[in-house]
């Protein structure tokens, strides 16, 4: 099965001599350059992680718009925007504007978010769960309001004496980008949230960790999550076929730089641990010579089940090296697996 292959950057910067991204400007400008390079190499997607109160990419829409203006074909996405921090209508405005600049290439991953750098950081952004809500409930409420706005629903009562003439009827969020509503993904950490995403017509974005719901290997649990999502989707009438992505750390060892950085670094086994009192399973990473890598990836049931693979990249090693990492997978691994 052909597979879309993109990169996912966490956008770290560190003021250290060994880092190629020592400032926020370095991280953002190099993110744009890497997206341009990935497009030239034939990759399908440039995706960026979003974290607040951290030395990482945190404000996605200026970056997505800039990438959209510098590229022509590649998908541009997030993995993921934490909806606990998001004003749903401002989110819809910014997303619509960035998507129009990019010519309709945004693929926005959103979610309830992961543990953050500060305690209840969303409170500093002006948000509080409603009475009886958890912070996860608040994130899902914000997501549903954003989906409503992205659909172009007209809901706002017009001013009878506006500054500029209004079209007839209620007003919607502008700018509206047709089709963007179908390009929203939910980052699901459990089978239940995957089904919830399917019910609401969002694509599925599954990362390198999930709730441990059976004790089975990570890739098996993730494959079952994908099946649960698709089974639930089949019960709905959304009018389009969903997409599913998984993220992996995969490094093909093809030269001395790769050997120095990654030979022997691949995690051969899954890791189990606790996040916010929830037992979670963390997927293994892959680092090997191409032939061995091909055989290992054939055994990853979730990669095989997904239509999109996002390669997590070590952005602090610089644009040239990360372009090499992407090219190595596209050239030495993907064809042998039938993905190209």
From TrEMBL:
CC terms in the record's Gene Ontology section: cytosol
One Pfam short name: Bac_luciferase
Keywords tagged on the record: Oxidoreductase
GO molecular function annotations of the record: oxidoreductase activity, acting on paired donors, with incorporation or reduction of molecular oxygen
Record-annotated membrane-spanning stretches: none
EC number: 1.-.-.-
Residue span(s) of domain Luciferase-like: 10-258
Protein name according to UniProt: LLM class flavin-dependent oxidoreductase
């Amino acid at each position: 099965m052909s597979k879309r292959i993109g990169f996912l950057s966490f956008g770290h910067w560190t003021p250290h001599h060994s880092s190629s991204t020592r400032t926020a400007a370095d991280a953002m400008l190099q993110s744009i350059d890497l997206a341009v390079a990935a497009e030239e190499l034939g990759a399908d997607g440039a995706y960026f992680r979003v974290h607040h109160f951290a030395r990482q990419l945190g404000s996605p829409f200026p970056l997505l718009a800039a990438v959209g203006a510098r590229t022509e074909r590649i998908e541009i996405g997030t993995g993921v925007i934490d909806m606990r921090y998001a004003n749903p209508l401002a989110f819809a405005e910014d997303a619509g504007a960035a998507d129009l600049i990019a010519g309709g290439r945004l693929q926005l991953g959103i979610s309830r978010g992961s543990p953050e750098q500060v305690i209840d950081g969303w409170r500093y952004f002006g948000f509080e769960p409603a009475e009886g809500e958890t912070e996860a409930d608040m994130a899902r409420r914000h997501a549903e309001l954003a989906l409503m706005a992205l659909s172009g629903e007209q809901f706002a009562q017009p001013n009878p004496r506006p500054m500029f003439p209004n079209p007839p009827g209620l007003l919607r969020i502008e700018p509206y980008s047709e089709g963007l509503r179908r390009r929203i993904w939910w980052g699901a950490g459990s089978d239940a949230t995957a089904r919830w995403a399917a019910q609401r017509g969002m694509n599925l974005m599954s990362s390198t960790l999930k709730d441990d719901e059976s004790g089975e290997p990570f890739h098996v649990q993730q494959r079952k999550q994908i099946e649960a999502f698709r089974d639930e989707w089949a019960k709905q009438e959304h009018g389009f076929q969903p997409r599913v992505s998984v993220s992996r750390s995969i490094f093909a060892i093809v030269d001395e730089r790769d050997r120095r950085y990654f030979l022997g670094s691949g995690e051969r086994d899954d890791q189990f641990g606790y996040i916010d009192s929830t037992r979670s399973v963390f997927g293994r990473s892959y680092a090997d010579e191409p032939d061995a890598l091909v055989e290992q990836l054939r055994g990853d049931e979730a990669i095989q089940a997904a239509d999109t693979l996002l390669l997590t990249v070590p952005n602090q090693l610089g644009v040239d090296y990360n372009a090499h990492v992407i090219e190595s997978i596209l050239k030495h691994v993907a064809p042998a697996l039938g993905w190209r």
